[in-house]
Amino acid sequence: MTATVKTDAALFELALRMGDNALILGQRIGAWCGHAPAVEEDIALANVALDLIGQTKMWLGLAGELEGKGRSADDLAFLRDARAFRNALLVEQPNGDFAHTLMRQYLFDAWHHPMLVALKSSADKRVADIAEKAEKEARYHLERSEDLIVRLGDGSEESHERMQTALDALYPFAGELYAADAIDGDLAARRIAPDLGEVGKRYLASLKSTFEEATLKAPWDAATRKGGKQGMHSEELGYILAEMQWMQRAYPGAKW
Amino acid sequence: MKNEWPLWEVFIRGQHGLAHRHFGSLHAPDAEMAIKNARDVYTRRNEGVSIWVVKASDIAASSPGDKEPLFEPSNSKIYRHPTFYDIPDEVGHM
Question: Which residues 6+ apart lie within 8 Å of A248 measured at CB?
Fold first, then answer.
């Protein structure tokens, strides 16, 4: 009995972490809608945002089911406070210029895709089913963001400089994505989630080759900024939630 | 907008066995990006199984002014239309 409860609690955390990453990044890039440098980029970014919000519904839906307190995906998205969010710090970082947005996207996609590939063989069928659907979307997101990193990194003098500045600013947040805590260890032991260290090795290898091709230099030895997965966020998240949640806070239970 | 990306015409095959059909146009710096943009702009609702893009400037087109000499002579030759045959349903798309 104790074991079952423990597994469910860890699985609940996994669903929140995956769901909150997708939700917060989706909300962030949704803010580009109508503002991207070209209409084609605008639509592409909005598509990625919508894919991520779709994935959020699946992960937070699962989280609510596991929790068993009758909370829906919407309840979890719109009625939780910052400390209850489990997204990595990377995805809450500001949009900045287009280079920052793309670099944040690439640093996330390059982890997200192999993570979902691994989750497809999760011992928990509900997790495997969500990963199966999300993985195809994430593969396209990665293909797109990786391509743009290389084009702009190895592009004009200005685009190179902007991409390098974005990489210097955002790379310290990459390490949190594959830094395992006790919950990750528990899930890996039960084969519900992969060994994050293994995912991290593949992640770093792909970053190395992409940045080399993009003529960018990552600050590999920079100290890792983390805490989001455990609910310790930067002040950025408060502003995101204020904008995202105000309607449900001001008009509780309002329906579209 | 001096630095605008070139214009590309987008052709999408709706399903296997059908021809690619002109869907619209978009801007992109090169062919690879044009295909990615076409995927995002034109196939959001599962419209296609294959995408072609071609630089708009590479398309040679007939001039609207030549409409009469080019097309009108065929108007009166209805025997050129194969409308006198019954096509069995099993044939499918022609």
Answer: A74, A78, A79, A254
Tell me the per-residue pLDDT of A210-227, one tens digit each, with 9 for 90 and over: 999 999 999 999 999 999
Question: Under CATH, which number does the domain B1-59 receive?
Answer: 3.10.20.520
Asked if the C-beta of A157 comes within 8 angstroms of chain B's C-beta atoms, the answer is no
CB contact under 8 A, B5 and A38: yes
Domain map of chain A by residue range? 2-250
* Inter-chain CB proximity A38 and B27 less than 8 Å: yes
Backbone angles phi, psi at B55, to 5 degrees: -60, 130
Q: Which residues of A touch B33 (CB under 8 A)?
A: 147, 151
Domain segments of chain B as ranges? 1-59
With vertex at residue A48, the alpha carbon angle to CA A204 and CA A132, rounded to the nearest 5 degrees, is 70
ipTM computed for the complex: 0.70
The CATH number of the structural domain formed by A2-250 is 1.20.1260.10
Write down the pTM of the prediction. Answer: 0.87
